[in-house]
Every structure is written in C-alpha cells, then in structure tokens.
Design a protein that fits this description.
Blueprint lengths: L1 E6 L8 H7 L2 E6 L2 H10 L6 E5 L3 E2 L1 H8 L6 E4 L2 E4 L4 H15 L9 H11 L4 E2 L8 E2 L4 H13 L2 H8 L7 H20 L4 H20 L3 H28 L4 H28 L5 H24 L9 H10 L2 H10 L3 H14 L2 H29 L6 H11 L3 H10 L7 H19 L3 H17 L12 H20 L4 H24 L7 H6 L2 H15 L2 H27 L15
Parallel strand pairs: 1-2, 1-3, 5-7
Antiparallel strand pairs: 3-6, 4-8, 5-6
Helix pairs in contact: 2-4, 4-5, 8-10, 9-10, 9-11, 10-11, 10-15, 11-12, 11-22, 12-16, 12-17, 12-21, 12-22, 15-16, 17-21, 18-20, 19-20, 19-21, 20-24, 21-22, 21-24, 22-25, 24-25
C-alpha cells in the first residue's frame, strides 16, 4: 500500500480522495505543514509516498501517470509529487524545512506540493514530469477556475487517451495498422481482470513454442497451424507492452522477459521449421542457422551504432538531416520502416510463407529480406558516421568494449601491445573475421584453420587495444559476432554428419543470448555482465579458437558431441547468471520499447 498525504482543506464535491484510493493509495489529511511532517514520518520507509494539494483537479489517468509509475524514483505534476523509498530522505528534508519555515501555519499548505517538487529539484533529485497532452492536471485558486477546470476534465475522455497512449508512438506499418487497433483492447481486457504483462509475455512465449512444435510436425496442417499461432503470439507480444503502458506495470522481471523472449520465440520457431523440413527429407538447418546469425548481427549493428552515438557531442551530419527531412513526408516514413523488415513485418512474412509454402522457401525469403534490410541500414549508418563530426565519450567507448565481448586471450595480448600498435579498429576486426571464416570455408577442420583462428585472436586484440572512439569503431562488435557465428556454421556444415548443424544452432543460440543479455544490461545502465562470466565462456576469440581446435582434433561425430556439450555449458552459465541478475534488486526497472528492427 502506498500513502498519499492530502494537504489543505478538502474541497466539497471533489473526487480526489476516491481517485487516489482507486490508485492504491491510503489517503491521510494534513491541514498544516506540521501535520504533513508528522504524517510523513509515520509512513513505513519501504512505501511510496505522495503529497497532493487538496484543491487538485484533473483526470484520474493524469494522477496515475504522475504518481504511480514505478520506473522513476520521483515524479510530479501540477499540485502533486510522489517519491519512492530511495529518495524518501530528500522529501523528508524538504518537508521539515517547510514546516520549520512556516511555523506550522495552515497557510503553509498552499502550493506545498509545488514547493516540495522545487526543493527536490534543488537537491539534485531527478523528478520525472509526464507528458499529459490533452489530460488536465491543475490547482485552481478560486471557484471560477475550479469550474472551468472541471469542464475541461469533462471535455476529454481520459480512458480514450489512456488507450491511445498504451500504443507505442513509433512502430512498424503492420503493427500499427493490423495489430494495435485491436490489441490495445485486449490489453484493457487483461488489465480489468488483473492479468499482468509478465503473464501475457509468458503466454506469448508458450504460443510461439506451440507454433514451433506444429511446424516441427512437417505436415501442411502443422505448417498452417504454426503460421496462425505465430501471428497470435505476435498479437500477445504487442499486448504485453500495451498492458504495461496502460496500467503502468513495469518491473525488473518484465524487462528481462520482454527483452529475451522475442529472440527465444523467433529462434525456436526457426528450429521448428528446420525439424519439420527434416521430416519431409529436406535439410535446412544451415539456412535456419544462417537466418539466426543474420538477424542477430543486424541487431548488434543497431545496438552498437546507438550506443556509440548515445551521448556523442556535435552529433549531426548531412545524412541525418536528409533522414529527418524524409521523416516529414508521411509515405516515406512507412516505406523506410517497412523495408528494414521490423519484427511485425518479419513475423507476418514468416507466418504467411510457412502456411503457404515450404520451410526452405521461407528461409530463402527471410535471408534475402534481412540481408537487404541489413545492407540498407548499415550503409546509412556508415554514411552518417563518416559525415558527422561527433566526439564520442568514454561511456560510449566502454559500451562498445563491453559489446565486443573480448575474453582472456585478447586481454593478455592487449596488455602486452598497449601503446605500441596503431591500426584502424574496424579494419583489424574485419580482416580477422574474413581470415578465420575464409579459412574454414577453404580447409574446414584443418590445422590451417586453427592457424588462421590464432591470427583472428591477434587481430581482435589489435582492434580493441585503444578505446573505441573512432567514427566507425561501432562496427567492431558486429564484425566479431559475424566471425564467431559464421565460423561455427561453416565448420558444422563441413563436418557433414547428422546432428552437427543442430548442435551448432544450439551453441550460437546460447552465445547470442549472452550478447543480447549484455545489450539489455547496458540499456538499463546496469553495466555489462560480470567479468568472471566473460572469462568463463572464453570471450568471442576464445570460443572461435576452441571450435577450430575441436574440429581439427576430433572426428566429425566427436565434433558434434563437443559442440553439443559446449552449447549446454555456455547456456547453463549465461542463463543462471542472467536470471540471478534480472530477479535481483539491482536490476533496472525499465521496460524495453521494442527492437529497432
């Protein structure tokens, strides 16, 4: 239970007390500033507390936005301020100062909430002020203003506003026009029945896994059912975020589930399609793994570019200006959003092709579409990076270093080479990646490939020997991801033994989960995974070298077993640590607003 301290004399006919109680607040009345101090001291230290002017007039949803959002330690709107336990002391100090300055006069309660908000700002507390739009939140000072405010409240349907604001402002064409018009009502239905976003997220995962199971049957009926279930899973995927925004149910666990389940659903579905194709005598595991690699590398490009430019100064370019200009032309916005094949369009395409064609055709279309989207977005970002005069910060360089996922071998080499070597980081990473992947293509499980993998380790160290602050240094993590994943794919394919590619699929999936987990920790300002974990799973260069050595030492059948064991070991380590972090009190209470592509 949260507590709301209502300051001043209650206004006859006001619904404020009832509104606050409907939002879960235990309402206390404070006629004087001294009363507010006494009541605040009586509130348990682990509770949220709000101070609200008794004259407040506004929409219920305005109060909800300003007083109950769990993502912010302090939030305010006209005539009201709310704080969570972590900044309770700052509010207590502000109330004590007000009480001392007023001498306990009743007059001191006038605009007390506003003065407390100003005091929190002065103390350096970050106070969130929600965008209210057409919602009303005001403190009238006379009967005429109160009457006008009440009329303004009656003129705006806050439930309609609440439903509209539950939908993300920026989304893909398919999601905006084919899903959100009705999924928002499903979100409201869930809210009124006490369902949580986490429950809806879990339902979406289970539905997608059921879709993957249907695809794995390899029958036409199974493929049709899989396509329909995948679409329904996406509806639920939209609903969980809309439910979180509709009811302001944000949580650390929800952040983790929302961040990871989309990938788990999509990649599990790829595996289901591959299993279904195998039942029909068509081996498409290489295509499934290729699709997963391409999609993951696309996301790493997005994440790296955004982190590199997150807080860069002088962050402008002619390319960015042209992009902003195109955004002002309605139809170009939708075309540009669709051609990058965001999750809505991508899942719709996969679902339709699954139902109407074969897994092989589905993967071909997916690879072509994602390859075009990756080329388009990466080329645009390279042009922006080359034409802008941005100066990147230490924070951005650290984020890129964390995304690089360098292990103990690179760390050892960097300590030896620091200050003695100067080389362009993206060039070094790209050459190293091409070297190891090409050697795997040419020689497969040979010692030549191992030797080239050693070269990849050396070049990887040269890429990160200096802080990643160059114009194109954000390309380093994507190059590392592509090199590691493609090496595993090529060596598994060349092993030419039944089960090698599914084992490789599992290994890449486990490593990709680790990389996504790193991204979402950074997004939540929680830092990268612990150093011991990165060391334990070898870093990208250690895993790449290990896979080439295993391929050279073992028979094809033994290599398959080794890949399986490595996949299980990595998955256990990263999952246990990830779950420990995301359910801990130190995890960020954020809600991911969706992937960029």
């Amino acid at each position: 239970m949260s507590t709301a301290i209502l300051t001043g004399q209650p206004v006859p006919g006001s619904s404020l007390e009832g509104d606050l109680r409907s939002l879960g607040f235990d309402v206390r009345l404070a006629a004087e500033a001294g009363d507010a101090e006494t009541l605040l001291a009586a509130v348990p230290a682990d509770q949220r507390v709000a101070v609200v002017d008794a004259r407040f007039v506004g929409h219920l949803h305005a109060l909800r936005l300003g007083l109950t959002d769990p993502r912010f330690a302090a939030s305010a709107l006209p005539g009201a301020v709310s704080v969570q336990p972590e900044v309770r002391r700052a509010l207590t100090r502000a109330v004590a100062r007000e009480s001392s300055a007023s001498g306990g006069l009743a007059l001191a309660t006038d605009n007390l909430a506003e003065r407390l908000t100003a005091a929190l700002d002065t103390d350096g507390v970050a106070v969130f002020r929600p965008e209210l739009g057409t919602l009303v939140a005001t403190v009238p000072t006379d009967p005429q203003e109160r009457n006008e405010a009440r009329q303004a409240v009656s003129a705006v349907d806050d439930e309609a506003v609440r439903l509209r604001s539950a939908v993300k402002a920026r989304d893909g064409f398919f999601t905006t026009y084919c899903i959100s018009p009705y999924s928002r009502y499903i979100a409201r239905w869930c809210a009124r029945r006490g369902l949580t976003p986490n429950q809806v997220t879990t339902a979406s995962l289970l539905t997608a896994l059921l879709a993957a199971g249907c695809a794995a049957t390899g029958t036409r009926a199974g493929f049709v059912a899989a396509g329909l279930l995948l679409l329904f899973s996406f509806v639920l995927d939209c609903t969980d975020g809309q439910l979180a925004r509709y009811s302001l149910q944000y949580s650390t666990l929800g952040a983790w589930l929302d961040a990871t389940f989309d990938r788990a659903k999509e990649y599990a579905y790829y595996a289901g399609l591959a299993l279904g194709a195998a039942r029909g005598g068509d081996d498409v595991w290489a295509l499934a793994l290729g699709a997963m690699i391409l999609q993951t590398c696309r996301h790493v490009v997005d994440f790296s570019f955004n982190e590199a430019n997150h807080d860069a100064t002088a962050n402008t370019s002619p390319t960015a200006a042209l992009s902003d200009k195109l955004d002002s032309v309605g139809w170009t916005v939708w075309v540009r959003r669709m051609i990058v094949l965001p999750i809505g369009e991508r899942w719709a395409m996969i679902a339709v092709l699954t139902a109407l064609t074969t897994p092989r055709i589905t993967f071909y279309a997916l690879l072509v579409g994602c390859a075009f989207a990756a080329t388009y977005t990466t080329a645009g970002r390279v042009l922006r990076s080359l034409t802008r005069k941005a100066r990147r910060t230490d924070r951005a360089a650290q984020a890129l270093a964390d995304l690089a996922d360098s292990g103990p071998l690179v760390e050892l080499l960097v300590r030896s080479a620091r200050g003695t070597v100067r080389i362009a980081a993206p060039l070094s990473a790209a050459v190293g990646g091409v070297l190891v992947v090409t050697s795997a293509l040419l020689w497969g499980a040979g010692w030549q490939t191992v030797l080239c993998a050693v070269g990849y380790v050396l070049l990887s160290a040269l890429a990160v020997v200096r802080p990643l602050k160059g114009a194109l240094d954000w390309l380093v993590p994507p190059f590392f991801r592509a090199a590691e994943y493609l090496t595993v794919l090529v060596l598994a394919a060349k092993a030419d033994v039944n089960g090698a590619l599914p084992a490789a699929f599992g290994l890449v999936a486990a490593v990709a989960y680790h990389h996504y987990d790193t991204v979402y920790r950074i997004r939540g300002n929680a830092g990268a995974p612990p150093h011991w974990l990165v060391r334990a799973i070898g870093g990208h260069e250690g895993r790449t070298l290990l896979v080439t050595v295993l391929a050279a030492l073992l028979t094809a059948a033994q290599f398959k077993v080794a890949l399986t064991a490595l996949a299980v070991a990595v998955a256990l380590l990263v999952l246990v640590e990830s779950i420990r972090f995301w359910v801990s009190s130190g995890a960020p209470a954020v809600h991911d607003e969706g992937e960029p592509a």
